[in-house]
Write a structure and sequence with these properties.
By secondary structure, the protein is α/β, with parallel strands linked by helices. The chain has 11 helices and 7 strands. Helices cover 43% and strands 9% of the residues. A 5-stranded mixed β-sheet has the order 5-4-3-6-7. A two-stranded antiparallel sheet has the order 1-2. This is Transposase.
Length: 410
């Protein structure tokens, strides 16, 4: 006889079904909240990356000056023409306006006044000074003058320094020892080398002032008849900098720390032989606007605050810097901020905004405060220090007070 198995099925109650629905609804709500959070974080990250990309493009390809134009943000870099083009727009009519620009008097004379002048005169010979009409003698009544610029090509020549040695005839015949005297002669720039002071200065100035690489200087000298390798020129420059320019550098350092104001800043330097992730630093120090400027560079492998502290050990004036905390290690100085760096923070925010952004932001108002201060400073630039201080209290201080009040509520 076949045995049958009974399966019992329990029907959930209404309460159990409601509880199950509540759990599913809660799980669904949690998933939606998690998805919304991830979406918000992703959009924020994308916006941040886009802002950084726009800021990077602006720094790499845009103009270096930070000019604030009210109501206008920077256009996209490459597609401005395609975006602004309207092929259905009719061509504008052209109105031609002609005028004569007044020529500045004395501009050519001012340009030529510091140059040496070579004068070539053209006269008639005595035989030619005869009137073609009556045969009488001619006399000079006036002159006609024209000027032209003449370029004298550079030349390289050998200078032989011949030093004469003298001795006493009488002592040569009668004395046991003969005194010998040698004429004085300037010491060479490089002992045993061919480099003269003018040659070494020319190579250095062509390299660092005119931006002419050594291989081009090598070719140029070859055309002048001198075969001088770029390796030799490099050796001369290194020796000259170490032996002679280091003394000038030390003297400049002695002078710069005696000033009342020094501006300092640092920038990264990627040098050959070091990994791409490593950064070296060039620290720049310069004097203020009073007197001849002194500008110095100090190479260091790190950005540590000990670097400016060591360089400015003898300085006791005002040190104008950006917001880098490393400068706080410099002792016996009064730190002052830099408005150019402060203004740059607002311009960086505006540059990072999308091109079509018309939403007003606080950075626009902050930039306007900075621009107002800069306009005042341009007007006061030519004043004496005492007068400038007085006008700053009258004109700049109210703007600064308003700026500070605005910052406190942001």
């Amino acid at each position: 006889m076949k045995k049958t198995t009974k399966t019992s099925t329990t029907t959930p109650t209404i309460e159990e079904l409601l509880e199950r629905v509540q759990r599913l609804e809660q799980k669904n709500a949690d998933l939606e909240a998690k998805l919304e959070k991830e979406k918000f974080e992703s959009e924020a990250k994308i916006n941040w990356l886009q802002e950084q990309l726009r800021l990077h493009q602006s720094k790499r390809f845009g103009v270096s000056s930070e000019k604030g134009i009210p109501g206008q943000l920077e256009l996209t870099l490459f597609n401005e023409v395609e975006k602004e083009a309207n092929l259905e727009l009719p061509e504008p009519t052209v109105e031609t306006i002609t005028y004569r620009r007044k020529k500045k008097r004395g501009q050519r004379q001012m340009m030529l006044e510091n140059l040496p002048v070579e004068t070539i005169e053209y006269r008639l010979s005595e035989e030619e000074q005869v009137c073609s009409c009556c045969g009488g003698n001619l006399h000079e009544m006036s002159t006609e003058v024209r000027q032209e610029l003449k370029y004298i090509p550079a030349e390289v020549k050998v200078v032989k320094h011949v030093r004469h040695v003298y001795s006493c005839r009488a002592c040569e015949l009668e004395a046991i020892e003969t005194p010998i005297q040698t004429a004085s002669m300037p010491k060479p720039v490089i002992s045993g080398g061919l480099a003269s002071p003018s040659m070494l200065a020319h190579i250095m100035s062509q390299k660092y002032v005119e931006g002419l690489p050594l291989y081009r200087q090598e070719k140029h000298l070859h055309r002048l008849g001198l075969t001088l390798s770029r390796q030799t020129m490099a050796n001369w420059m290194i020796y000259g900098a170490d032996r002679w320019l280091s003394q000038v550098y030390s003297r400049m350092h002695q002078l710069i720390v005696k000033h009342d104001i020094i501006c300092a800043d640092e920038t990264t330097l990627q040098e050959p032989g070091r990994s791409a992730s490593s950064k070296s630093y060039l620290w720049l120090y310069r004097t203020g606007i009073e007197g001849p400027p002194i500008i110095m560079y100090d190479y260091r492998e790190t950005r540590a605050g000990e670097n400016p502290m060591k360089f400015l050990k003898e300085f006791k004036g005002y040190l104008q810097v950006d917001g880098y905390a490393g400068y706080h290690k410099v002792e016996n100085v009064t730190l002052v901020g830099c408005w150019a760096h402060a203004r740059r923070g607002f311009t960086d925010v505006l540059k990072s905004l999308p091109v079509n952004s018309i939403k007003p932001v606080a950075a626009t108002e902050g930039l306007q405060f900075c621009n107002q201060l800069f306009r005042i400073e341009r007007k006061l630039r030519e004043l004496a220090p005492e007068d400038r201080h007085e006008q700053r209290l009258k004109q700049s201080k109210p703007v600064l007070d308003a700026f500070l009040s605005w910052l406190k509520v942001q």
